[in-house]
Amino acid sequence: METQLDPMKDDLPLMANTSYMLVKHYVLDLDVDFKSKVIEGSIVLFFETGSQYMKTSSAGKERCQSQFDVTCKMGVSERCHIPVINVSTCSSKTECNDFAVSGKEEEATSDENSNHSNNEQASGISSSKDCCDIENHGNKDFLLVLDCCDLSVLKVEEVDVAAVSGIEKFTRSAKLTGVSKKLENLRNRIVHELVTLPADRWKEQLYYFKHCSQAPGCGELLFSTGTWSLEIRKLGIQTPADFPHAIRIWYKTKPEGRSVTWTTDQSGRPCVYTVGSPINNRALFPCQEPPIALSTWQASVRTAAGFVVLMSGENSAEPVQLREGILSWYYYVSMPMPASTFTIAVGCWQEVKQQSFKQAAAIETNSESSLPSSQTDFRWREEICGHVEYPCRFQNPAARLQAVIPYRVFAPWCLMETCEEYLLPLIPQCLSAAYATLGTHPFSRLDVLIVPSNFSSLGMASPHIIFLSQSVLPGGSHLCGTRLCHEIAHAWFGLAIGARDWTEEWISEGFATFLEDIFWARAQQLSHDEIKGQQELKALLRWRRLRDEVQNSEEELQVLRPKKESTGELSESGASVVKYGLKAEKIFMQVHYLKGYFLLRYLARTIGEVPYLTSLRKFVIKFHGQLILSQDFLSMLLKDIPKQKGSELTVESIFQNWLDTSGIPKPLLDERETWKECRLVQHVSGEVTKWIQTNRRIRKSSKKKMKQDEVVFQQLLPDQLVLLLEFLLEEKTLCPGILQCLERTYQLREQDAEVSH
Asked: Looking at the record, which segments are called Disordered (predicted)?
């Protein structure tokens, strides 16, 4: 039964009918115009026929129309475009009458397309209701649905891949024996051969993807744009197998589009970048948003000279001058990932460079500590990867030994010196610590960009690129290092291993929060006692945040698996919803970070940290390049637990106590007293007592000035200072003199963003 989608609610609809057609590769060809604040160009999508159609095609073609019904329930489409139709292609006179457009109407449609006014209706089909009426009157044309929002779609056309020079090699395959010689079938077979090339021919595959994307069009397709979708069909084509498997969409973004933000950097220069919007990338390009639509991509982006284009890509792109004042940047990826992970940033970024001998020394220093996990990798190297075929680093002997992958840092001009002093030295340390913990880096390189001040988070990780807020730079290395470790952890959990259902955010954020402590401790090369003390202190701070959030948020938003037993389920067409994906309060909540972290911490304490981290490495080896549900991780982990240690642990009990309920989990309530025994916490408690006593003394004798030598306050670590300030804020009254003394004692204005907050 189809999911009833209602965009007026707080759930984010994923409209793409991935069960019938699944995108395998995108080729973007775009121009960035800062004057009009528009990204314009084309995207070519290469498809394979989806699994649901393959299963049901023998039973009849009617079921392929179910997605048509769903899109009709989404409300009125904004407009629909009908290309000029050759009468000879119509199968009946009635069809020709339904879709023919007069000369005047063609002009009106063309004018509207150039104006991109979604408020005015074009001639022909003007709403989803009309589309449904046509379908109900006997037209069984297959409808391709893509996720799309805030875009002006200009034209959709089939791509004549058969016209590409040298493409005939894909038509000689034995698989084509007995296939109809119809040109449409030939084109689809070429696309099939291309998207299924073996991994060792990935360079050849990218070459032909690019040239196919530049092939001429061979007929416009009908399309309509709705609130959340782009719907495409071809007259007379009734099945996904016969629908064009290579289509080109010409479009423009809108300045108000929610996937990117147009702003200025800290030096006052214009820039644009993807902001990690709740609607993901559907306002940047038409795509299939469901996580199951794992795809590769390549992109050529043109912009004015002086701008630098950074993107999710395996290559460190170098600009090519097309003509005076215009540069082109080219990126690609060969590892299939959800379209939501695609990231772009265009601005006057400056590369922050470090003296080469310093960088080499940092790498050499940290590589020694990572040798044990390299040996761990060798124990698993014979395992066959479980993902779809691609050139995988886990199967590359050189990649398995690479403790520090190549990296670059970019920032606005005014922040270059700060980045060189604080950020650059941390990157090799954190990368090496991550490698020592989890083994092979899933991605071959890393760019780190300090994004504009309007960025609403401390960081965001995407394939091959990390965005960091300027807020992580002041106040020493602590906040910068921990946040960098958090985002690096997403390379494994969130990117290389993704959630099959986006409502299970804890799989990404909980793991990254847990691992940031492990990585950062190793990067600092702390002793065992220092590591334990810092982690207990951090746990107490996080428990206090979780407690406050639980007390001040809706219960339904506190559940880590809100769909419970329905988690991971899709409608027949592949459409689904991200529960509470558009709820405004959810953007600011940390429950998935915190409860996820505490669950993983609880499991590590139950099992023991060493065997637990060994299980994590084993899990990474087995599931990298794949999408998972909570039970995939928990089932594998529990199999590795000795019976005497995990006698009470089952997947069901973890669901019940941690993932499927609101509030603070009961096992966590039982643990909170243990943090008072932490030496770093006791140190803070002692300092708090001094400050409270001093505050009371000043209040009693307000006319007397407090002498600086009366009380000696100890210096504190950043996390200790946060805890101290939280304790002091619980006091009813603090004298102005105490506030001034706090400022002088701890130099609060020079501390990091968490202390300042």
From this structure: 107-126
